[in-house]
C-alpha cells in the first residue's frame, strides 16, 4: 500500500473537492439588513454560507473548468498562482471542512430560520 503524503495526496482524491468551489469572505453580519443581504446571496443557486474562527464566508460551488474526467488539472503547468500556492498539508481529503464550522447554512430556509431565532422581531 502506498503511503499518502502531501506530494501525492491529490492523486488519491477522486472528488477534487478543493477544485469544485471557492470561498469569499464577507463582513460579519450584525444587522437585519446584513442578514437580508446574506439571504439574497444564498437565494442564488449553488451558494452556501458558513462561519468559522476566521469569520463569515460564502461558498460558491462551481467546479473549475479545467478539471479533467479523471480529476486531474488539464492546465497543471500553466495553472493560476492560487492553485500553485495551495497548501494541502490539511485538506478535505483528511476530514470535511464543515467539521470546524460554527454555523453552516446550505439553503435560504436554514438561514431564514436562524435570522428568525436571532432577531425576535424579524417578521415585523
From TrEMBL:
UniProt xrefs under InterPro entries: Puta_zinc/iron-chelating_dom (IPR005358)
Stored Pfam families: CxxCxxCC (PF03692)
The organism's place on the tree of life at top rank: Bacteria
Stated name of the protein: YkgJ family cysteine cluster protein
Organism, scientific name: Candidatus Thiopontia autotrophica
Amino acid at each position: 500500500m502506498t503511503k499518502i503524503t502531501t506530494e501525492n495526496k491529490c492523486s488519491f482524491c477522486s472528488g477534487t473537492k478543493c477544485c469544485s468551489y471557492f470561498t469569499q469572505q464577507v463582513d460579519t453580519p450584525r444587522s437585519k439588513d446584513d442578514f437580508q443581504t446574506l439571504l439574497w446571496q444564498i437565494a442564488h443557486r449553488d451558494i452556501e454560507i458558513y462561519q468559522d474562527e476566521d469569520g463569515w464566508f460564502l461558498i460558491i460551488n462551481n467546479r473549475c473548468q479545467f478539471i479533467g474526467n479523471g480529476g486531474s488539472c488539464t492546465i497543471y503547468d500553466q495553472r493560476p498562482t492560487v492553485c500553485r500556492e495551495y497548501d494541502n498539508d490539511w485538506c478535505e481529503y483528511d476530514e470535511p471542512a464543515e467539521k470546524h464550522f460554527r454555523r453552516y447554512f446550505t439553503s435560504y430556509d436554514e438561514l431564514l430560520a436562524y435570522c428568525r431565532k436571532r432577531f425576535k422581531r424579524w417578521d415585523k
